[in-house]
Automatic annotation (TrEMBL):
Cofactor dependency: Zn(2+)
Name the record gives this protein: Aminopeptidase N
InterPro entries named in the record: Aminopeptidase_N-like_N, Aminopeptidase_N-like_N_sf, PepN_Ig-like_sf, Peptidase_M1, Peptidase_M1_dom, Peptidase_M1_pepN, Peptidase_M1_pepN_C, Peptidase_M1_pepN_C_sf
Keyword Hydrolase found: yes
Reactions this protein catalyses: Release of an N-terminal amino acid, Xaa-|-Yaa- from a peptide, amide or arylamide. Xaa is preferably Ala, but may be most amino acids including Pro (slow action). When a terminal hydrophobic residue is followed by a prolyl residue, the two may be released as an intact Xaa-Pro dipeptide
Membership in a protein family: Belongs to the peptidase M1 family.
Amino acid sequence: DGTTYLSDYRPYPFTLDRVALTFRLAPKATRVMAKLHLSPREAGAALHLDGEQLKLISIAIDGQALKPADYLLSDTGLTVHPAALPEGEFTLETEVEIAPEDNTALEGLYMSNGMYCTQNEAEGFRKITFYPDRPDVMARFHVRIEGDKPVLLSNGNPVGQGEGWAEWDDPWPKPCYLFALVAGDLVATHGTFTTMSGRKVDLNVWVRPGDEDRTDYALGAIQRSMKWDEEAFGREYDLDLFNLVAVGDFNMGAMENKGLNIFNSKLVLASPETATDFDYERIEGVIGHEYFHNWTGDRITCRDWFQLCLKEGLTVFRDQSFTSDMRLGPVKRIEDVIALRTRQFREDAGPLAHPPRPDHYREINNFYTTTVYEKGAEVVRMLKTLLGDAGFRAAMDLYFARHDGQACTIEDWIKVFEDASGRDLSQFKRWYTDAGTPHLKVSERFDGGTYTLSFRQSTRPTPGQDTKPPRLIPIAVGLLGPNGDELVPTQVLEMTEAEQSFRFEGLGAKPVPSILRGFSAPVVLERETSAEERAFLLAHDSDAFNRWEAGSALARDTLIAMTEGRDAGSDYLDAIGMLIGDESLDPAFRALLLRLPFEDEIAQTIATRGGVADPDAIHAARETLARDLAARHEAALSATYEACAVAGPYAPDAEPAGRRALRLVCLKLLALVDAGARAEALYTAADNMTESLGALSVLIGLGKAEGKLAAFRAKWQDNPLVIDKWFTTQIALCPPEEAAERAATLAADPLFNWKNPNRFRALMGGLSANHAGFHRKDGAGYRFYADWLIRLDPLNPQTAARLSTAFETWARYDAGRKEKIRAELSRIAGQPGLSRDLSEMTARLLG
Ligand code: DPP
Ligand code: ZN
């Protein structure tokens, strides 16, 4: 059925050391001439080259045209028979024709607003030319581009240019998924960076004319990334030039092509009037991410796509560490854990669960997941926790020294950590090969001055994996005394058994444990904890993460009790009140404390505990708790709202951004007691997108934004990134009963350019983010969503498949909703000609 298995890996039987490509660009008929220098590694092997949707014009070996009997052409590639191959090394030349303008899948060479660009990860290069499209074939590329565009870019260094042509040479061997070409009418914002060994690097941020006033932040982020990788990992940039290009039509966030990173424009363009604090933070983080790939991805790449988390988990870990250093570390950690739980734990709990290193796939694009990326990053983080800072750095140094220039596996990676530390990490490796989130049950005992913590770990079955042996879990624990003092500072317990106890001796009184500090392992902690104890930790824990966690657990338990009609008590409201105006706490941290858990998160928790999630009850409970919180603490909220106003011109730094975040959380709560008066005032006064959109969001929630939404649309209609926000925000935050109709109205708006992935995601993502709206009982949300996936699939299967994950939670809900979701999935699955991407997803979703 077209499934690829890890166990089927075989090395490529040829080496390919040099490639020369010539592109003669034309929208409907681009010619690609490829010259491959090959030599056999095994005698008698056929030469297989991947190739899809290519019109073969000519093929020759060592200058001699091949006869039709010499090779076989299929839908997926070209195979030259062994008899037609010379014995030693040889040159294969092909010429093909492709049509970038008709490429709506946005993989390979395509066009975006008149500009040519490429996206080749994972398997796009086979839509450009016949080639061994696999990451373990690494070659040096020389590229000539001919075309009537003023700017013609490829990887590496420019080696010649003239009217209508340019040549590029990349000295570093690379797999073809890192090849890139850009040709267009572009303008650059230029900068430089001097590396630690004193080399000067030219930096360019290329955008469409008119966008150049929104590039400064991106340029600064490149410079900060380069500096940070030198300081934190000793990694220096290795070319004289670093180009970054912003593209309006892009399936993913960004791409780390060697020396020529290509970005979704939403992760580059920013000005105070058009981008929010959140956008700025993401832009810096993703620019860091792609830049850090230069070493973890480009210099050391993956042997095959099963090893994707080798580069992605590690590079996410690196970008998280970068943001942590650039901004507020504890706040960044909490944000990352919230994202992990809401996205990755959700994936692990449903039909799409898979290990960070999967062992089979039909379509690799379906495995660019939060498990590979974010859980992959958690696994790297645990290695650092186990080895300590110095041990981790030593292992990373060994990784770079040993594997530079290679295409590697998770086994290579683990071996580096074993060799650097002298430890046996075979049990730890299960984090890479086993799917599912471990649950950790905790019990405690105190007697005669000895405090004992006992843990039991278990992981539920996931598709294809019924039993889960115990994993090595690093559990960071500290103990607090009755007055809140730290009795035992943080230590890392290493749990290796299914059940294991740890003893702490010589304690005068029963301590309060702070378990899993810093979220030291991606597990679900199950512990009967009283509200008093949570309030105690919220007030006293020295670990910022667990302090926040205590508050959020209180809020979660309160909300769940409310959905079940139980008396929720006032512990949460009592405990949180004291912290709202506590100036000793960072505003960004207080903003996180005051933000109630997402509805989807509550549904996830209810289902994990064996209940049935009721989206309407969850929505109502959250509204009620917000109202109670606002009514009870109006004075503190109001004072904090005033105190957090940021004076002076807008700056996207962590400090003012944190104040704005707290201010907007207060604003949202205060709107429940002031009928939106403050939000109206802020919307009128705001000089930046963070506050305008924040105020507008509050008014949307109150149903008081129609006039403003119309004016906002008129003001920003020529700015696609802002219009994306206009789509998302009103759908995500409108009253749930209106969401499906509003989505339908917006889909009919002339600005709904559904072939643009950002715009499509803006609307569909907005709808699925409106939990109770998407899950409306009559199924209107599901139907609308499925209709559009069906419509997009023939054009852009990758994005359609990605968005189908909105349905992965069907098992949480009541029989009626379950049936409706499954009916929509079956309807999608039954479409004639469904893509491999979406048919794999629906098959897995239906289980
Ligand atoms: N390799 C890319 C990234 O994660 C995905 N296109 O940066
Ligand atoms: Zn990446």
